[in-house]
Specification:
Blueprint lengths: L5 H4 L3 H12 L49 E3 L2 E8 L2 E8 L5 E8 L17 E3 L2 E5 L4 E6 L5 E6 H4 L14 E3 L2 E3 L12
Antiparallel strand pairs: 1-2, 2-3, 3-4, 5-6, 6-7, 7-8, 9-10
Length: 195
């Protein structure tokens, strides 16, 4: 029997490769501020895609080791938001998309435990809009942060407030912003399935 989780046994190479592909040719590319992009449809609408890549692949501009989780990066105004877990904390990191330098970091305690011992990091991709970053952790912590400073504007423990179950793989819905409302599918009790 193998010991350790897959994320402990191997570096998160798939995400680092994704970051290089995303930024290698276009440091000024269109924003990708939420799950599946600007229109939440997974479509890159600009016409500046490379027709081919060098045989050795795109050049690596920068690298960063990250912790556990399945959250995708969100990009806006030349800044990249990473949401992952190190030890017993979920981290929201804002990096300069061009060089990977840290602009700010916010962390908070994370108690989520995966029943299968696979990965205990966040699943939901952050959403950037209106000068704010919205994150939703695996245990149901919804946070609104200032995009420029990382200061926490507010937070809601959705698991307790809406009596939401842990779920098979934790909470994984990426925040959807509609006007002043943050929409999440959390499966809570008493009609609080979507809040």
């Amino acid at each position: 029997m193998q010991s350790g989780t897959p994320s402990q046994k191997a570096p998160r190479d798939w995400l680092t490769h994704f970051l290089w592909v995303l930024f290698a040719f276009r440091t000024c590319a269109s924003d990708w501020p939420q799950f599946l992009g600007p229109e939440r449809n997974g479509v890159y609408a600009d016409s500046d895609l490379a027709d081919s890549w060098p045989k050795e692949g795109p050049p690596v501009l920068w690298r960063k080791k990250i912790g556990q989780g399945f959250s995708g990066p969100a990009v806006s105004s030349g800044k990249l938001i990473l949401f992952h877990r190190l030890d017993d904390k979920e981290l929201v990191e804002c990096l300069d998309a061009n060089d990977g330098k840290s602009l700010w970091t916010l962390d908070y305690p994370a108690g989520y435990r995966d029943d299968f011992g696979f990965d205990e990091g966040p699943r939901a991709t952050p959403t950037i809009t209106g000068g704010k970053v919205f994150t939703f952790g695996a245990e149901g912590a919804l946070c609104c942060l200032d995009f420029n400073s990382g200061k926490k504007n507010w937070g809601v423990d959705t698991k307790n407030r809406f009596q939401a179950p842990k779920g098979f793989f934790g909470m994984a819905c990426s925040p959807l912003i509609e006007g002043d409302a943050v929409l999440l599918n959390i499966g809570g009790a008493n009609g609080a399935g979507i809040v």
